[in-house]
Design brief:
Length: about 240
């Protein structure tokens, strides 16, 4: 029996983001032919396809902008921050950047004991002794094969993917509403109010995205640290 090639993630991460942009655009440009068009069964199915495709476009754009340019380049790679030295309160002068104060939780490192366990095991298995993308990719690949870790990691991956796409879609929706308010007089105040609400939602979703983006890496390393090294197991056996 053929299986449905779509998952809940397709609905939440792609369709919802696409419909946010379509919905805000239709409201922002009310009175146009597209916004006032009658929607029947065929038209509805067409708009669902358009929303799904638009959701993929949003994902393709938001990944390099929010994940690479903002999270990894602006804030710092999550694996490096997770293995940073934990500062004791009041022991050193504060040299925090503004982004560290705004996104404080994103910069919280793993406990030193967990850091040591991860690095000791990676060095024992594949001679990886430095923190970098190689360490994260190796641990991630190992834990995706772990029947206990994989379902948890999939949840975090889906949540941060949805939050990233929804954040970007809300920001685009806010821009559309502002442009619509400037171009058309109808419901100008309401459009401006909704634009403010959309940008506030985008800011909240950005925090949610960064939270689960970091938690995904954190769970990868915690699961990895909790297992015995494969070399240790082979020597014991």
């Amino acid at each position: 029996m053929p299986t449905i090639p779509f998952t809940a993630y397709d609905f939440f991460a792609y369709l919802s983001a696409g419909f946010v942009v379509i919905g805000t655009g239709a409201f922002a440009y009310r009175g146009t032919a597209v916004a006032d068009a009658e929607i029947g069964l065929v038209e509805g199915a067409t708009w669902i396809i358009v929303a799904y495709v638009l959701g993929h476009v949003i994902s393709a754009v938001s990944t390099p902008l929010l994940e690479r340019r903002f999270a990894e380049e602006r804030l710092g790679e999550r694996q490096a921050l997770l293995f940073a030295r934990e500062k004791k309160t009041g022991s050193e002068p504060s040299d925090e950047r503004p982004t560290q104060r705004i996104f404080r939780a994103y910069f919280s490192p793993l406990p030193p004991d967990i850091q040591r366990l991860v690095l000791d095991r990676a060095k024992d298995e594949v001679e990886i002794s430095t923190v970098g993308k190689g360490l994260f990719l190796y641990c991630d690949a190992k834990e995706r094969q772990n029947p206990y870790a994989a379902p948890v990691l999939a949840i975090f991956l889906n949540i941060y993917g949805f939050a990233r796409n929804a954040c970007f879609a809300s920001a685009v929706g806010s821009l559309l509403l502002l442009l619509g308010a400037l171009k058309y007089e109808a419901d100008r105040d309401l459009k401006a109010l909704l634009a403010v609400g959309a940008i506030v939602a985008a800011a909240g979703l950005l925090y949610r995205y960064l939270k689960f983006f970091r938690l995904y890496a954190r769970e990868v390393f915690l699961f990895y640290a909790s297992e015995k090294s494969t070399r240790t197991q082979s020597r014991t056996d």
